[in-house]
Design brief:
- This protein has helices spanning 2-11, 17-26, 33-45, 50-60, 66-70, 75-92.
- By secondary structure, the protein is an all-alpha fold.
- The chain has one domain (2-92).
- The two termini are 23 Å apart.
Length: 98
């Protein structure tokens, strides 16, 4: 579940469904430092969009109720979580933190 939530948070804001699909299929092992950074920057550019959040979650995990998952959080809280998870992913991959 943590891996799924990390993927959801990390990829929120990705600009294309194709990029998101490729990254989610390859899993953490398939992510480079540049991809992690790019995904976070894309999320950061649109971090206040609940619609982007919901679309992303439904694409990654159609069974998860995205609105319920985000219901008790603010955009700022989701942003902080995303940054934390992105930095964890960067560390796991041996990258410099954001």
């Amino acid at each position: 579940m943590k891996k799924l939530m990390f993927t959801v948070l990390l990829l929120t804001g990705c600009q294309t469904a194709g990029q998101l699909g490729t990254m989610s299929q390859s899993g953490m092992a398939g992510l480079s430092c540049d991809q992690i950074g790019a995904a976070f920057r894309a999320y950061e550019a649109d971090r206040y969009s609940m619609d982007a959040w919901v679309q992303l979650v439904k694409l990654v995990n159609p069974e998860l109720d995205a609105r319920a998952a985000a219901a008790n959080t603010t955009a700022d809280q989701r942003y902080q979580e995303a940054k934390t998870y992105a930095n964890i992913a960067m560390a796991v991959q041996g990258c410099q933190p954001l």
